């Protein structure tokens, strides 16, 4: 029997104690699986907090008192909504401005009559 040979196998020989790439990948995947639910919970909390913060900002933004008022005579066919949308300051929500008009004039509803004089708040 030959002691030394020039024969080389076409297959790579991997020592038995070394892990295969797939086993290492699976082990890492299992380790990271426990962090995925934590990441989901953190993202959910961030979304909830940012939503509440945005809602608070929207409703808290219009609390300033008006500096002065401009008188507006209601014409036939005018509605409180049309007046609010045409006379509101820039970057102001029409609904918020309409509510300010109602409070400033002491209106209980949105009913107005032609010829009424409304005071429109100005900031």
UniProtKB/TrEMBL annotation:
Residues 70-120 form the LysM domain. Keywords: Membrane, Transmembrane, Transmembrane helix. SMART domains: LysM. The chain crosses the membrane at residues 36-59. InterPro entries: LysM, LysM_dom_sf. Gene3D superfamilies: LysM domain (3.10.350.10). This is LysM peptidoglycan-binding domain-containing protein. It comes from Paenibacillus campinasensis.
């Amino acid at each position: 029997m030959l002691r030394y040979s020039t024969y080389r196998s076409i297959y790579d020989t991997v020592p038995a104690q070394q892990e295969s790439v797939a086993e290492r990948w699976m082990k890492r995947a299992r380790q990271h699986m426990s962090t995925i639910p934590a990441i989901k919970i953190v993202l959910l909390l961030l979304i909830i907090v940012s939503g509440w913060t945005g809602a608070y900002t929207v409703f808290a933004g219009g609390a300033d008192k008006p500096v002065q008022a401009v008188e507006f005579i209601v014409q036939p066919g005018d509605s409180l909504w049309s007046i609010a949308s045409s006379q509101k300051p820039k970057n102001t929500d029409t609904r918020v401005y309409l509510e300010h008009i109602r409070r400033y004039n002491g209106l209980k509803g949105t009913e107005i009559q032609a010829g009424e004089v409304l005071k429109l708040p100005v900031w």
